[in-house]
Design a protein that fits this description.
The complex is a heterodimer of chains A (221) and B (258).
Chain A lengths: L1 E4 L7 H9 L4 E4 L2 H6 L2 E4 L5 H10 L2 H11 L3 E4 L1 H4 L4 E2 L5 E2 L6 E5 L11 E6 L1 E2 L14 E6 L1 E5 L5 E7 L2 E9 L2 E4 L7 H13 L2 H16 L1
Chain B lengths: L4 E9 L2 E6 L2 E7 L1 H11 L4 E5 L11 H10 L4 E4 L5 H9 L4 E4 L1 H5 L2 H10 L4 E9 L9 E5 L4 E6 H11 L3 E5 L12 H10 L4 E4 L5 H9 L5 E4 L1 H4 L5 H10 L9
Parallel strand pairs in B: 1-4, 1-12, 4-5, 5-6, 6-7, 7-10, 10-11, 11-12
Antiparallel strand pairs in B: 1-2, 2-3, 7-8, 8-9
Helix pairs in contact in B: 1-2, 8-10
Chain lengths: 221, 258
């Protein structure tokens, strides 16, 4: 089962409908037991960072999310869900976030008055690294974005895809171990978005962790 | 690079997609879900639905239709017409629409914009405006806002209204020129550019699109972020891939693979 975490941060219907289109068993839930038992977890969200963090705290879900990530469960962040897995956001005068991946979230500062805030629409993603969730997705594929702030992870190794907007070339896909997170909305990005979601649903990151552990042991030897 | 969005508009009357000129002489074009699926398959970037008889008939928007569309397509769509309060907005968004569009309601009750933005986020709330060219001292921008399907003049200046809506938290503005609507003689460039230059949010041009060159002009000369088309594709005269190919040849950034 795929758990779609419900924390009152926007509309989750499209995420569920996209999963249904793919024939996946997905449930919108805020029950920690169900979230911890899920095979895959999607952490979506639209809205503002501060109120999202406050709600997650009120619902007792911050620890659940950290636990899911620690357990090695495949975890997909989307939009605001991606931003708040970083450590800190400039939004709402500065908001401490969950801190699963090192880095911050920054506001676009366009110099051209026709670069509108939010960025709204289809923009291309330049793939930086191979990843099982990005398999079969062509270089420069376009995805649907709606956001005013963008993720800036500290470790360049985490950057799986980049996108340019309003003088910034930002990390539009970030990933680390069993976590992958997109600034765009795969659930609203037509067939290429469905491809990404389908890859995610088939992703067994333990395999990579296992392989990298073997690789590391080999290097140490 | 962020691409320019091509957005087919489906006017719904009695559960059917219709097309008229200046809200008159409507002809039936087909089933909303079938047409939405067709345009989705052809690669449109977004869709907009207006339940054009909901307000006049004093009934809420057709939620069942919104749900059916949400099941059929995997791209964003907005819905307008028949929205009279926050509860209506919530129903439309929960049914799977990405955005909800307010027009006459926002003129009557501007606070609905702030309430909607607070409840669902600015990106969900779109302002639809129907400005008409006028020569009146109370409308210094040269355009006056009309409501109720162009039937009623409000005395409100179009540019002032756009700025106010942004201050209240609107996430996007659809500028539908009353003068150009249904003419297919081209978008109203001056009006669209004036709004786009003066607001921080994305601006969608609407009314008058008749060929790919019209779209290219409103993207380059008026800096529209997106454009709504209707007649040119509903009649079968153009297909979306054809429009997109022509726009690419004209150097416009367009989403080409889907």
């Amino acid at each position: 089962m795929i758990a779609i975490i419900d924390y009152k941060a926007g509309n989750l219907t499209s995420v569920k409908l996209a999963c249904e289109t793919l024939g996946l068993d997905a449930e919108i839930t805020r029950d920690p037991t169900k979230i911890l038992a899920a095979d895959h977890v999607i952490f979506p969200g639209v809205g503002a960072a501060r109120s999202a963090i406050t709600t997650l705290n009120d619902l007792g879900l911050i620890d659940t999310i950290k636990q899911v990530v620690q357990n090695g469960t495949p975890f997909l962040g989307i939009c605001l869900g991606t931003q708040i897995v970083l450590e800190f956001s400039e939004e709402n005068g500065g908001t401490e976030c969950i801190g699963i991946i090192q880095g911050t979230v920054k506001l676009f500062t366009p110099s051209n008055p026709f670069d509108k805030i939010p960025q709204m629409g289809w923009n291309s993603v330049s793939l930086q690294k191979a990843h099982p969730v990005l398999e079969g997705i062509e270089e420069s594929s376009e995805f649907y974005f709606v956001h005013s702030y963008y993720p800036a992870p500290t470790d360049p190794e985490c950057v799986l895809g980049t996108t340019s907007y309003a003088n910034a070339e930002f990390a539009s896909i970030i990933g680390k171990d069993n976590v992958i997170a997109t600034q765009f909305h795969p659930e609203k990005s037509g067939r290429v978005g469905l491809k990404l979601l389908s890859n995610f649903a088939n992703w067994q990151p333990s395999t990579i962790n296992h392989l990298s552990a073997i690789a590391q042991r080999a290097t140490e030897d | 690079m962020l691409t320019k969005r091509i957005i087919p508009c489906l006017d719904i009357r009695d559960k059917k997609v219709t097309k008229g000129v200046k809200f008159k002489n409507n002809i039936v074009l087909g089933d909303p879900v079938e047409l939405a699926s067709k345009y989705y398959d052809e690669g449109c970037d977004e869709l907009v639905f207006y339940d054009i008889t909901a307000s006049a008939e004093g009934r809420p928007i057709d939620i069942e239709m919104v749900q059916e569309v949400a099941h059929a397509i995997r791209i964003p769509f907005s819905v307008g017409g028949g929205i009279s309060n926050i509860e209506d907005m919530s129903r439309v968004l929960l049914a799977g629409a990405e955005k909800v569009s307010v027009n006459s309601l926002a003129v009557k009750n501007p606070d609905i914009i702030a309430e909607g933005a607070k409840a669902f986020g600015s990106q969900c709330i779109v302002l639809g405006m129907d400005p008409i060219a006028v020569d009146k001292p109370e409308c210094p921008s040269g355009y006056e806002i009309t409501v109720r399907g162009f039937r009623e003049y409000t005395g409100i200046d179009a540019l002032e209204w756009a700025k106010k809506a942004v201050d209240l938290g609107i996430g996007e503005i659809v500028v539908n020129s009353v003068d150009a609507d249904g003419t297919r003689n081209g978008f109203e460039i001056g009006l669209t550019r004036m709004i786009a230059e003066n607001v921080s949010v994305p601006v969608v041009a609407s009314g008058g699109g008749g060929c790919s060159a019209h779209l290219a002009k409103v993207f380059t000369d008026a800096h529209a972020d997106a454009a709504i088309i209707a007649g040119m594709i509903h009649t079968g005269e153009y297909t979306i891939p054809q429009i997109k190919n022509e726009l690419v040849e004209l150097g416009i950034p367009i989403r080409q693979k889907w």
